[in-house]
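hi! just following up on the protien thing from before. the input was this:
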Amino acid sequence: MISKSALEEILDISLSKGGDFSELFFEVNNSLYFYFDDNRLEEAVVGEDIGVGLRVILGDRTFYGYTTDVSLLGLRKLAQNLAEAVFLRDQNIKVVLSDKKEYGIRPLKDKGSFEIKEVYDILRMMNEKARSYDSRIVQFTSVIRTVDQKVLIANTDGDWVEDRRVRTVVYGLSVGSYNGVIQTGYESIAGMVGWELFTEEVINKIPYEASRRAILLLEAKEAPAGVMPVVISSKAGGVLIHEAVGHGLEADLVDKEVSVYKDKIGEKVASELVTMVDAGVLEGMYGSSGVDDEGVKTNYNVLIDRGVLKGYMHSRITAKKFNVPPSGNGRRQNFRYPPIPRMTNTFILPGESKLEDMLQRLEKGIYVVKMGGGQVDTTSGDFVFAIEEGYFVLNGEIKYPIRGATLIGNGPKVLEKIEMVGNDIGFAPGTCGKDGQGVPVTDGMPTILISEITIGGTEKGE
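and the predicted 3d structure came back as:
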């Protein structure tokens, strides 16, 4: 990508007018995007994005710039502009980089091994399967996207690493309509993989689950309202944990005093049944990588251990402030953004309980199979989430599907009210937004029983 001598020169220039630390992030991002709707392929886009982000840190201040001119002249100009912005004092820095460390994956099927017609055939087949599920399915939309990201990171500490991240995602959205009622169903599958993602199982599952869920909601009853126990399935994928708890454990929010978990290291913050982990090292997961976007090797970070808060997710900057090692959570959307603490693959470890035993504990409650979108206040931990697929349970028996339901609660309080943790685990991919940046993540959890939580609905139940 860039020669060792050129990297050392650019880093030298960037600190020539002062500064404690400098880092160069070089990215080559090749992407394919296919959008199928209304029985036809609407978009097929091939893209390439190349650029460099350069960061200089002086005390608590960060100076950041980026350029798409990756010539040596363009990089010298960027480094000089940043140095002039710092302008503290002249200093003679001589950076010596270590031997390069290389990470990354080699997909079994590279994006170049597929023709557009093959992608079209996959999308067409999914469309046909979705619509043939039920005559009430009136629309099916699907997307296939793959990104092949190559990054090079070098800094004035002498680190020099390269990483390749190949991520592929497919999702489908079915729309059902009957007697003036319209409902939608959604399903997605993604991973740190190439085109080998598209097995027969995946091609069948996406339209089936999306259409099944849309029809289920057409036939569902209005949700009851009130405070009641809830079983959340591992199929829900952990979005509740990600949003209601995970963001509060990102160290920059803790440092800004907008996290409910500030100053609680070593304290009990959850049920002793809960052990929560963030791990960017899990093979094949959508949020994984060899190193984070600061060149720090990704890690298996235990955040909550049997209910006790053990630590936060850190970038280099927050790790220095908290006097701990960086955790491998410094992430950025691309070279145009500086890295900040972000989740990777965040999940609760499995326990020992069985789903049927949890359902038996519900005299009157809700069984949540899939979560929808929502909102969270990280300062208080308060949240509201839609239930995309859920069922009313009476005396341990699943009675009927519900629609229009929401979960309303508080993250820390929910963690304390987890009474049973299942012996299973499920994961769901997604894109996490924060500070205007989106990064790929995976959320996961076993089936859990929450003793009580507020359900928002339009009916009072039976």
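Residues 4-219 form a domain with the PmbA/TldD fold fold (CATH 3.30.2290.10).
The mean pLDDT is 95.
cheers
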